[in-house]
Amino acid sequence: MEIGPFRDAYSWLSNFGPGPVEYYGIKYPHRENAYQAAKYNSRAAKLYIASLKPGQAKRAGGGKMPSEFLNSLSIEGWDNKRVGVMEEVVLACFQQNKWLADKLIETKDAELIEYNVWHDCFWGRCTCQLHKSRGENHLGRILMQVRKELHNEKAKQLGELYILSIRVQECLPEWKAAGLFKDNQ
Ligand SMILES: [Zn+2]
């Protein structure tokens, strides 16, 4: 099964979808804001981007910012950093919003593909006549990687909970003998 594009019932998979996400001490309303703010060094610029709508944040990442912030734009080597930043932002967002994590885990092993029409063959796959649904789909791949990590975390927690429940059962007779449950028996 395939899921994509990330709109309508699946708009929560988009970086313009719901957050919030706290990233390096600043709370952003959407993943897009956190990602674009990472291109700026100053805290003031990051806070400004945190206050924007996601579409505005995207333009801010492209340099459409009040001039006082522009000297903190730092995109040297950005092409090598961007996938790592996106991985951190997406993982943080899904870890911080349990309902999003649960939705992502519910997609099971569906292939998540950021189909788009705006010629983004890096983060997704563009469906135009020229690109014919080609693309590296890095955003979809990151989401699938995050899904795997969340799934493993959940399995580990459930396992720990199970072991804890067994230990409690083992200890109950001792606790009862010690009079710990006097009032409830
Ligand atoms: Zn295209």
Give a quick set of tags describing it.
single chain; 185 residues; mainly alpha; Tetracycline Repressor, domain 2; 51% helix; extended; binds zinc ion
Structure in words:
The chain has helices at 31-37, 43-50, 54-61, 67-70, 78-96, 98-106, 138-177; strands spanning 2-3, 21-23, 26-28, 111-112, 115-116, 125-126. It has 185 residues and is mostly helical. It has one domain (6-177): Tetracycline Repressor, domain 2 (Orthogonal Bundle). Helix 5 (78-96) packs across helix 6. The mean pLDDT is 95. The structure holds zinc ion.
Structural class: mainly alpha
Low-confidence stretches: none
The value of Rg in angstroms is 22 Å
Helix-strand topology string: EEEHHHHHHEEEH
Bound small-molecule species: zinc ion
The name of the CATH architecture is: Orthogonal Bundle
Write the layout of secondary structure elements.
Blueprint: E1 2-3, E2 21-23, E3 26-28, H1 31-37, H2 43-50, H3 54-61, H4 67-70, H5 78-96, H6 98-106, E4 111-112, E5 115-116, E6 125-126, H7 138-177
Parallel strand pairs: 1-4, 5-6
Antiparallel strand pairs: 2-3
Helix pairs in contact: 1-2, 1-3, 5-6, 5-7
Bound molecules: zinc ion (ZN).
Residues 119, 126, 128, 130-131 line the site of zinc ion (ZN).
